[in-house]
Write a structure and sequence with these properties.
205 residues; alpha+beta; two-stranded antiparallel ribbon; 9 helices; globular
Length: 205
């Protein structure tokens, strides 16, 4: 449970998230009003597409950690990453449409998404790789393009102090609650396997 749950506030009520939502609401009504949404030849984009991009970027900033810009929430068990399905639900859009919007945002340099992998042994007893939950971030470039970088820097500074208080309350290091749960799980698994191998009796010669 996050501190926002305890105070009955929603993450979208944070000052930067509110400001971002207001700006994008205006852009959605008149795409040509924002240079950031003009095409390379200076024309306005299709309004329906801009509207959906604005919905997605609103959700991403609403769900973003102001300190690291990762999309998700810090908990006592680690950082809970938001999936594309959750983002689609919050944006009231199908997942395929969200991914279209994100592809545009990636090209603009507004969003990054990295998918860590882990090794596992398949049913055929062969070592394989599988993807873990992707780590999504809103970039600093986005806030610069939206002309709210100064407000972002203020939010980032405030978030640093907030995270320290929250970590103390949970009795966890800040680094721990900021590490994705899936990565913590993978590290525990790798540590357990390493320990198991260390205690394995050597094969007699």
């Amino acid at each position: 449970m996050s501190m926002y749950d305890l105070t009955h506030k929603q993450r979208k009520d944070r000052p930067l998230a509110r400001l971002n939502a207001v700006i994008l609401e205006k852009v959605a009504k008149m795409p040509s009003s924002s240079i950031a949404f003009l095409t390379s030849n200076g024309r306005g984009m299709r309004k329906s597409f801009v509207t959906d991009i604005c919905k997605v970027m609103t959700v991403l900033v609403n769900e973003m950690c102001m300190r690291t810009r990762k999309v998700g929430v810090a908990t006592k068990d680690g950082f809970a990453l938001r999936s594309w399905a959750q983002i689609a639900e919050d944006a009231d859009l199908p997942v395929w449409r969200v991914k279209q919007c994100v592809n545009y945002a990636k090209k603009k340099g507004w969003v990054t998404s990295v998918q860590p992998r882990e090794k596992y042994t398949g049913k055929d007893n062969q070592e394989k790789w599988r993807g873990l939950a992707s780590i999504k971030r809103v970039t600093e470039q986005y806030f610069k393009d939206m002309s709210i970088n100064e407000q972002y820097e203020e939010a980032k500074k405030a978030a640093k102090d907030w995270l320290k208080r929250y970590a103390r309350r949970l009795g966890r290091p800040v680094k721990y609650i900021q590490t994705p749960i899936t990565l913590l799980r993978r590290r525990r698994k790798e540590a357990a396997e390493a320990q198991q191998h260390a205690h394995t009796d050597p094969i007699p010669i």
